[in-house]
Amino acid sequence: MSQQNTNKPAATDTTSVTPRATNYPQWYLDVIKRGDLAENSPVRGCMVIKPHGYAIWEKMQRELDDRFKATGHVNAYFPLFIPLSFLTKEEQHAAGFAKECAVVTHHRLKSVNGEVVVDPESKLDEPLVIRPTSETIIWAQYKNWIQSYRDLPILINQWANVVRWELRTRLFLRTTEFLWQEGHTAHATEAEAVEETARMLDVYADFAENVAAVPVIKGRKTPGERFAGALDTLCIEGLMQDGKALQMGTSHYLGQNFAKSSDVTFLSKEGKREYVYATSWGVSTRLVGALIMTHSDDNGLVLPPKLAPIHVVVIPIFKTDAEKALVLEEATKVAAELKSQGLAVKLDDRDGIMPGAKYYEWEAKGVPLRIEVGPKDLEKGSLCLVRRFVLEKEGETEQELRKRRKTFVPRMEAIASIKPTLDTMQRELFERARVFRTKRSRVINTMEEFESYFAKDGGGFAWVHWAGNHEQEDEMAKRFETTIRCIPFPDQIPEEAKGEGKCILTGQPSTQRVIMARAY
Amino acid sequence: MSQQNTNKPAATDTTSVTPRATNYPQWYLDVIKRGDLAENSPVRGCMVIKPHGYAIWEKMQRELDDRFKATGHVNAYFPLFIPLSFLTKEEQHAAGFAKECAVVTHHRLKSVNGEVVVDPESKLDEPLVIRPTSETIIWAQYKNWIQSYRDLPILINQWANVVRWELRTRLFLRTTEFLWQEGHTAHATEAEAVEETARMLDVYADFAENVAAVPVIKGRKTPGERFAGALDTLCIEGLMQDGKALQMGTSHYLGQNFAKSSDVTFLSKEGKREYVYATSWGVSTRLVGALIMTHSDDNGLVLPPKLAPIHVVVIPIFKTDAEKALVLEEATKVAAELKSQGLAVKLDDRDGIMPGAKYYEWEAKGVPLRIEVGPKDLEKGSLCLVRRFVLEKEGETEQELRKRRKTFVPRMEAIASIKPTLDTMQRELFERARVFRTKRSRVINTMEEFESYFAKDGGGFAWVHWAGNHEQEDEMAKRFETTIRCIPFPDQIPEEAKGEGKCILTGQPSTQRVIMARAY
Predict the structure, then answer these.
(1) What totals of helices (H) and strands (E) does chain B contain, helices first?
(2) What is the CATH number of the domain that holds A482?
(3) In a domain, A306, yes or no
(4) CATH at B395
(5) Fewer beta carbons within 10 Å, N or C terminal of chain A?
């Protein structure tokens, strides 16, 4: 079988990545393009996830799915379509979600003069909405599944595509169709449902920090920012390199709202008929966007090793045919030895592409480690290891930094060092992001400081006291484009932000600070 | 975390399964219901895949995905929506597929007097079709990805949901929305594309026989039965227990049809601009239907161990509290020892459910092995192993057969025997299905015999010579409800069916026999 080419962009595409400092939004798009992760499609707002981008999503899925199963959940699949009448049942939910949906109204096409058109006679009696989220269709089913406390809890997750007709879209971060998982659980008691809501937020935070290497703040949304139909919305918030917040996952305590609108009751142990308690929780392909914006640099994509589809790329370097034979033999051996350690290894032995172009390509795709194998390395019995990144030092030049990324290591030692090096890189990425977040967080007590933080200093996480109402939140949004990202859990508040105080806007007393930021 | 209940039906549901001989279609539905695999949804023709059914599909996905990756393919994701105009581009394809599609015409809802309705002002300029298959949208993208022979081959697979507005639906076998995978590859030469088409059919046949334990015949469809837009459609055909054929997977050689309609050309090594060659191939959740109809019996679902979400269920049996403590300790140990062998084990220690009800439940769910642990087993140092099935012997009573399923084995020996027993059961299921197929296959040379085979003898695979045209195929379908399932590859033809002959209908000379059968 010939060489698979789908996960490489043409190696001749050497357009560079716009620096972050020059144009951050363009940098983001360039990283995606050069990393060959995704692209826009001819369908408004829908993206094509290309093989390298999808491989990252698959790794995320596996890590998340393992965690869902370890906490007792099982997967299932519910229909893509929701009958329109279902949305009328849960008005509050519908008001929040049903506005911008794709609606199926016909079920047949026909040919007219060689052109394919919608057959007007195939109009549906009841329009079908493409699921923007599945609470209504799933709870209609749970009604049949739940009779007594013995049928509870139901702990189901679904991996699916959903559609929200977004006006302004951005690859991964906000697309009309996106891929996600949605957990929908049913419980006999409020306490159990509340516990589940918190448990799944912890699962998301664990994934974000220990797999994606993105530090997050756990907290709850204000009433105005809650999921439509929820009594409580918990979230994890990350901070991107432009100082904007990104909501990376939410877990909702839905109380008995959906049970009531779908009339789902159960016979309790005490023989009483009661409404069931619900949760729902989800993360999406937006996480790929968070990954890009947290770790990548002006050379392109940077991936935490735990989510890298390829850990190590091995590149043979030679001039003559004699050299080629020897170098290829060694490169093949090195690749095989690393594969036997369970690592994902790519031997890039493509002809007709200069090594430099290969370096450039794999760096842009975020492969954590590169091994160069040349005649001199063979002679010396060493390998040339190049890390995708090293932590920057104060006042270092780009050249010095590049030099530090590269080391020549005796062969055996090199082979043994790969796994520990990847572990180090995983830790360093998280640490670097944590340091960045600390730098871009500020405890703020006055409106003047708040204004200048966002107007002059680029903004970030502003830790402020807040006691305003929903209208006053809107006022802040209008004036500064900031929102309350979350009311952090007490253990998430850094020392310097702890304690009571007065609302930054109203001066009213406040028991704890919240995080305000601009957000995606 | 409390006991997960979603993959059990209420143990109190002891409705029995309709015997196959009484009513085969009802038996099929009963097996699905008692096995808790899937159910109809409120959305016309769409099913809900319940956790136990979805777990089987997940195991299928993993096995198939591993095989796709081992043959050099990568996964990606393309939009759910296809602009209507794309279907006009490939008329032949559209004519075959576009007839019964879900069509999105609006993108917004609004509330009117507390009722949610479609906002007429949100009408789309161009309707969007929910993908019935993705050739058109994928090839529109490939156009941007392919410039030279260096960009080929593209070997992409997609796991996705698709929608075909079916008039008559049946759980798993034919549903309006279904889950599948669709491979879409692009090649520089006809030879390479033809080779790919055959390779993927082999992957499907390998999966069907060695994982699903369903024997299949590999062959090609007649021109009238080809995929819309294909030059050649290869397929694997299984034979279900009612003597009907089931198409279990198809692999299409598309020639340059889609490249031409989407204008996808490449610069060859020789510097010529040429159209790209294409293949596509797919299998779907229909495979779960094939699994059910090949192996299950009048007690419910039977699963090949390689696709069983649970390999072994351990059931403690006791009367007194003292017995309970001892028996539970032993059952927990047994389960742990088996888990450490990499087996999927369920310890069913639910209170308040009689052992008999548990046996019944797990048998209906197709768990291959049950281990009963009671006080007597503890005393003797043995375990009671019960197999979900054993091969039937001629003239055996139901009671004798039930007895043979159960053995008492010294503990250590029992633990060591589980894996080999599962391997044996996997082999036996395949063998049993192969014997069944042989019994229900017949070499037929006259129309009289053909008629009586399907009218009186229940039918099956009829090996007949055929030289008719498309109209004559339709004639056979009208008279006997039979179709040509495939023109088998030469190596698939049994000895007694080999050789040339004369068409059963027209008497014209024919070079080889085809398989005619009734089909799902």
Answers:
(1) 15, 27
(2) 3.30.110.30
(3) no
(4) 3.40.50.800
(5) N
In a domain, A429, yes or no: no
Q: Could you tell me the two tokens for B56? A: 């089987």
Same domain, B338 and B228: no
In the 3-class helix/strand/coil scheme, how is A202-256 assigned residue by residue?
HHHHHHHHHCCCCCCEEEECCHHHCCCCCCEEEEEEEECCCCCEEEEEEEEEEEC
Tell me the pLDDT tens digit for each residue of A375-403: 999 999 999 999 999 999 999 998 999 89
CB contact under 8 Å between A141 and B83, yes or no, is: no
Q: Is the pLDDT of residue B212 over 80?
A: yes
Determine if the pTM surpasses 0.90: yes
- Average pLDDT value for chain A: 94
Tell if the CB–CB gap between A84 and B154 is shorter than 8 Å: no
| B13-28 burial code (b ≥16 CB/10 A, e <16) | eeeebbebeeebeebb
Give the pLDDT confidence of B199-209 residue by residue, as tens digits: 999 999 999 99
**How far, CA to CA in Å, does B482 sit from each of A248, B472, B473?**
55, 12, 9
What is the CATH classification number for the domain harbouring B217? 3.30.930.10
Distance of residue A210 Cα from the nearest chain B Cα, in angstroms = 23
| Adjacent-strand bridge partners of B182 | B158, B282
B402 touching A (Cβ < 8 Å): no
Alpha carbons A317 and A320: distance in angstroms, whole number: 10
The DSSP letter of residue A497 is G
| Cis peptide leading into residue A355 (ω within 30°) | no
Asked if residue A337 and residue A284 are part of one domain, the reply reads no
Number of separate domains in chain A: 3
Q: How far apart are CA A277 and CA B187, in angstroms?
A: 54
- Residue A6 pLDDT > 50: no
B133-155 tens-digit pLDDT: 999 999 999 999 999 999 999 99
Distance CA(A398)–CA(A402), nearest Å, equals 6
Chain B environment of A106 (Cβ under 8 Å): 102-103, 105, 127
CB contacts of A156 in chain B (<8 Å) are 6, 51
Q: What per-residue confidence (pLDDT) applies to B94?
A: 67
A16 and B CB contact within 8 Å: no
Q: Across the strands, what pairs with B371?
A: B314, B385
Cross-chain residue pair A102–B128, CB shorter than 8 Å? yes
Q: Do A55 and B78 touch (CB under 8 A)?
A: no
| A121 pLDDT higher than 90 | yes
Domain annotation covers residue A103:
yes
A-contacting residues of B 31-70, CB under 8 Å? 39, 41-43, 46-51, 54-55, 57-58
Q: Which has the minimum average pLDDT: A135-139, A441-445, B8-12, B54-58?
A: B8-12
Complex confidence, ipTM: 0.95
